[in-house]
Amino acid sequence: MTKSFLSSSLALALAIALAAGPVVAQTPAPTPPDSQANLKPLINTGGTELKFDWPALKIGTGEYSEGPTGVTVFSFDKKVMAAVDVRGGAPGTVNTDLARLGYPTSDFDAVVFAGGSAYGLESTTAVASALKDDGKNTGNWDSIAVALGAIIFDYGDRRLNEIYPDKKLAQAAYHAAQPGIFRNGAAGAGRMTMTGYFFGCKAHSGQGGAFRQIGDLKIAVFTVVNAYGVVADREGRLAACYNDPSWPAGTTVTDLMHNLPESRKAGWATPSGPMHNTTISLVVVNQKMDPADLQRLGIQVHTSMARGIQPFSTMNDGDALYAVSTGEIEAEKGIADSTEIGAIASDLMWDAILNSVPAQDPLPVIKPQPAIAEKTL
Asked: Which of 48, 203, 224, 300 could join 240 via S-S bond, C-beta 3.0 to 4.6 A?
């Protein structure tokens, strides 16, 4: 190749570049305010730890502080049998139809609870694909990873963005799951929950769990409380509420319910407007159960929750409860029958509801400003 040929080629390239105009540096497009691109998962953090002995049940939580919003993943060491009971008027769930069929087979690998409303349903399918990627299923028709899931609405006036628990967060929580540790309070899917909008309370909430072992029988209950109603303690008092100053001293949940609809009006409570709220729950037992007993367990425990949340399962709630049997001990050797297990789990669930309530930050005291005397000329 001659120098004259190279010179001609360079001259031609320069002429083409000059004809195209000056090179302008490209400014990177601004990151959208709700972008998920650079979010960093915070794993197994927040709240207080509930510890229990159950190697077959692993729990992982994750959150995006930029939301804030989060996800809670329950996974099992082998496939489990599950049933579902949906009570709310605005549910958001995954694979509930399969859980309703009542097959006497163990078809499910995980249960996933997430914030982010309908967008958070991505978390459930993400956990299933993580199970597949980990090689825990063969791909045969009877060995497909299946996760059950439900979501809560944690947008609206509580945070000014639409960040949601996505695939990255859900899979990080799944891979960090550990046996026998659950985080009570403002953690995981309960990171940005609130309760009491029905009466204008707008109190902070979270997720709660409780556990009991009787001999070889193990029962665990978990709930993410984002209820439209208020949380009541076992004496009927308000467990959490930023109540209207005009309410009578010592107002109880019974007072509010008995004085409807007046108790929702100005002078009783600040009108809250329509909201979408949800309580999503899980009951896990290690005793084998047939599908009918497992379904009835879910119904029994879900019904009992109306004691601790009032009103419960309104048109504005998406309440759903999953009941799971890990099948580790035979029913014939069980300590309790299915109805007794339901009664025990119902009592535990009230504890879980109360355990979901984090410390309530006091409202700031606004001191009146002193009047400024007008100067006369």
From this structure: 203
Taking each helix axis from N to C terminus, what angle separates 122-133 and 167-175, rounded to the nearest 10 degrees?
50
Query: What is the rounded CA–CA span in Å between residue 281 and residue 298?
Result: 10
- Percentage of the chain exceeding pLDDT 90: 64
Q: For the segment 215-269, what is each residue's pLDDT rounded down to a tens digit?
A: 999 999 999 999 999 999 999 988 888 877 778 777 888 888 887 887 787 666 5
Are 15 and 143 within 8 A, CB to CB? no
Reference 345, options 289, 303, 291; nearest CA is 303
Mean pLDDT score, 127-153: 91
Tell me if residue 185 falls in helix, strand or coil.
Answer: strand
DSSP-based three-state secondary structure for 28: coil
CA–CA distance, 208 with 149 (Å, rounded to integer): 17
Q: What is the pTM of this model?
A: 0.86
| Token duo for residue 20 | 């195209």
Strand partners, 108: 80
Taking a C-beta distance cutoff of 8 angstroms, is the pair 199, 263 a contact? yes
138 an active-site residue? no
User: Which pLDDT band, with edges at 50, 70 and 90, does 214 fall under?
Assistant: very high
Peptide bond into 362 cis (omega under 30): no
